[in-house]
Design a protein that fits this description.
Length: about 425
């Protein structure tokens, strides 16, 4: 089994806030001590942190659920509960985080040490010391902690490389990488020897350096998932320069120029913006018979079919086996990298707006529906949050919740919908009778 994994689906749950406490001060010589219950602590956030030592999402193959600790409950003497530590989840550089439900990109994590809070912990519930008023100096009311956010994400790893090697299987990409870097990719005389991206660092004679990725070979239809399909194509999105490797010896009976057109067509079909990246054509296997003649025909076809106003891509004849032409190719690649800016992977329409953890003021506070068993069902973020933070073990808290529902207009809305005295009303799994 390959130890490289570049996609994963995970669930995260931030910690709940700690419950507030109901307590009263009882000390000798202190009559009518009053409320003394403290607030609960904050729940832990779930935080993604980039770790440059990771190269794969393999850690997420078997561990798909991440849950932060909840805050401690409030204590007597008005003391707050301890807030929970954040849960740190380490991810490799180049990880894109998407919301599994909407498909929107939350963040693109590329810098070592970069942090992003993907789920926020709930605040602690208030203790009864917070509810004391002149009218009610000894309240028996406290709040439960706010639930932490619970979300599902799609993680997608796109390798960080300045230069990507593309081309049909067996054109010599892995051999080229092994010669120009210290990487040791698998090399074999059969298709799809490379099934995962391989990375290596190149250092030119002039002292410049850049990262090169040998990416799994493409075949026709890859953009629709044929062969290794999009398993390969996602990794070229971060590269700034493409080295298009072509077997100029035509050892497998294919026309080099047709190979060139076919690969570019797959890149364009997958993501039109890939064609914005400058390409250098690497005419490989020039040590083989017929390569020189094939290169001459290739240049003629390229010139004849290229837009007269467009600049023809550079072509460098090389041989990975004899190391012919490699120094010139690497110097030209380094020069092109210096002139090529970074490419934005996502536009604003693909990115999720900055997370807002309050309530949407325009959203209705509650919604009313009716179940098959004729029970009225109340839902809505604001209403459900009030429900979850209500301590139903205390009569005063229950009465407070009933007043809050009335203040939100729930009673009037139920009557307008036809609710009668004695009808069942459900919030989540909690049911109660409607009293007209």
């Amino acid at each position: 089994m390959s130890m490289f994994l570049d996609t994963a689906k995970i669930q995260v749950k931030a910690g709940n806030g700690g419950d507030g406490m109901v307590a009263f001060r009882r000390e000798k010589y202190v009559p009518n001590g009053g409320p003394w219950g403290g607030d609960g602590g904050r729940g832990g956030n779930v935080v993604f942190v980039v770790d440059e030592g990771l190269r794969t999402l393999m850690d997420f193959r078997y561990n798909r659920h991440f849950k932060a600790q909840s805050g401690e409950k409030g204590m007597t003497k008005g003391m707050h509960g301890r807030g929970a530590e954040d849960l740190i989840v380490r991810v490799p550089q180049g990880t894109t985080v998407r919301d599994a439900e909407t498909g929107k990109v939350l963040t693109d994590l590329v810098e070592n040490g970069q942090e992003f809070i993907v789920a926020r912990g709930g605040r602690g519930g208030r203790g009864n010391i917070r509810f004391a008023t002149p009218k009610n100096p000894a309240p028996e009311i406290s709040e439960n902690g706010e639930p932490g956010q619970e979300r599902e994400f799609l993680l997608e790893l796109k390798v960080l490389a300045d230069v990507g090697l593309v081309g049909f299987p067996s054109v010599g990409k892995s051999t080229l990488l092994s010669v120009i870097t210290a990487a040791k990719p698998k090399i074999g005389a059969y298709h799809f020897t490379t099934i995962v991206p391989n990375l290596g660092m190149v250092r030119t004679q002039s002292g410049e350096s850049f990262a090169v990725a040998d990416l799994p070979g493409l075949i026709e239809g890859a953009s629709q998932g044929v062969g290794l399909g999009t398993q390969f194509l996602r990794h070229i999105e971060r590269t700034r320069v493409i080295l298009h490797v072509i077997d100029m010896s035509a050892s497998e009976g294919r026309d080099p120029y047709e190979d060139y057109l076919a690969i570019n067509k797959e890149l364009e079909s997958y993501n039109l913006r890939l064609m914005e990246r400058p390409q250098i054509i690497v005419a490989n296997k020039m040590d083989m018979p017929d390569s020189s003649e094939n290169l001459k025909v290739f240049k003629e076809k390229l010139a004849a079919n290229y837009d007269e106003f467009a600049e023809l891509p550079q072509i460098f004849p090389i041989s990975s086996l004899t190391k012919q032409g490699l120094a010139t190719l690497l110097d030209a690649t380094a020069d092109l990298l210096d002139k090529t800016p970074e490419f934005l992977l996502y536009d604003e329409s693909e990115m999720e707006e900055e997370a807002y953890y309050g309530f949407d003021e325009e959203a209705p506070a509650f919604e009313i529906s009716r179940d098959d068993d004729a029970t009225w069902v109340l839902s809505g973020d604001k209403l459900e949050k009030l429900f979850n933070m209500t301590n139903f073990d205390r009569d005063e808290a229950v009465m407070k919740f009933a007043r809050q529902l009335r203040g939100m207009g729930v009673d009037e809305a139920l009557r307008a919908r036809g609710a009668k005295d004695g009808d069942l009303v459900r919030i989540g799994k909690f049911e109660f009778e409607f009293v007209d």
